[in-house]
Design brief:
The chain is mostly helical. The protein folds into 2 domains: about 100 residues; about 60 residues. Helices cover about 75% and strands about 0% of the residues. The longest helix has about 35 residues. The protein is flat and about 50 Å long. It starts with 8 loop residues before the first helix and ends with a helix. About 5% of the residues have low confidence. Keywords: Membrane, Transmembrane, Transmembrane helix.
């Protein structure tokens, strides 16, 4: 079964989309972390936690900053989610694009890489589950790890053989 349905030039497009989504995700994640730190610092500095629905004129400068940060968290979360989806789509486009020379040997290497990737992730998942049964992992993280691991395994198998 041949699942390479896109032409070879789509590999470059997939890499660009992947790196674009990854860079956007990193930038938003860093901003979100910095804003979260500023928000936590502000919470410790004030004793009264005001509701952000109060008119802005009645709030102090620090409380206005906290409300602004809390309001931007939802936007950051949605943007981060879209950037992660963009990077996953980029990896999928890269994976389903044809190689320059597509033959049965490349198909066998691709299948071996899929099998090895699935086995590695299942073993790691089982090990993590044995160590700690209550781990909370996002689907984007699992998909990113799977696709990146597949790309590494396929790249090294292609270089070795």
């Amino acid at each position: 079964m041949n699942i390479q349905i896109l032409p070879n030039w789509c590999k470059k497009l997939g890499l660009v989309v992947f790196f674009l989504g990854t860079i956007i995700s990193i930038v938003i994640g860093l901003q979100h972390g910095l804003l979260q730190g500023a928000y936590q610092e502000g919470l410790h500095a004030t004793k009264n936690h005001h509701n952000c629905n109060v008119p802005c004129e009645s709030l102090s400068k620090l409380e206005k900053k906290q409300c602004t940060i809390k309001g931007s968290e939802n936007l950051d979360t949605a943007s981060l989610h879209l950037a992660e989806i963009l990077s996953i789509i980029g990896m999928i486009v890269y994976i389903i694009s044809k190689e320059k020379i597509e033959d049965d040997y490349i198909n066998k290497l691709r299948l071996d890489a899929y099998v090895l990737t699935v086995l590695i992730l299942l073993c790691v998942s089982l090990l993590i589950y044995i160590i700690s049964g209550n781990i909370d992992v996002k689907l984007e993280a699992v998909l990113n790890i799977f696709l990146i691991l597949y790309l590494f395994i396929f790249f090294f198998k292609k270089r070795i053989y």
